[in-house]
Design goal:
alpha+beta; 5-stranded antiparallel β-sheet
């Protein structure tokens, strides 16, 4: 995996690029070889996935915790993907994504059945 660039958050650094790089790598592997083991790698990556009118896929716990959150259409298919991290005040903060980064996260989220 490529070395991640970091975004400074107060006294902590947040490795947004490391998470996106890992997801890109998983998706590239699935595109190259759509095997059940590669689909399982996607299902195993998040710590937790839940649905509450929106879906929430917790990617990492700890410091900092990260997740993807987004809306579902009437068929329970993700239509948006927002990347968030938990700041020290226990508040989920959004990360500004490029269109390409959001498309990657949306493709990743669509690998799950809600």
């Amino acid at each position: 995996m490529a070395k991640a660039s970091k975004v400074q958050l107060g006294t902590k650094e947040f490795p947004k690029d490391a998470v996106l790089s890992a997801i890109r790598e998983i998706l590239d592997t699935l595109r190259d070889s759509p095997s059940e083991s590669n689909r399982q790698a996607i299902r195993d990556y998040p710590v937790n996935v839940r649905v509450e009118r929106v879906y929430v896929a917790t990617l990492r716990g700890g410091s900092p915790a990260t997740r993807i959150i987004g809306a579902l259409n009437s068929d329970s298919v993700p239509t948006t993907a927002k990347f968030q991290y938990l700041i020290p005040d226990m508040i989920w903060a959004g990360v500004i994504l490029t269109e390409e980064e959001e498309a990657i996260l949306l493709e990743f989220a669509r690998q799950f059945q809600f």
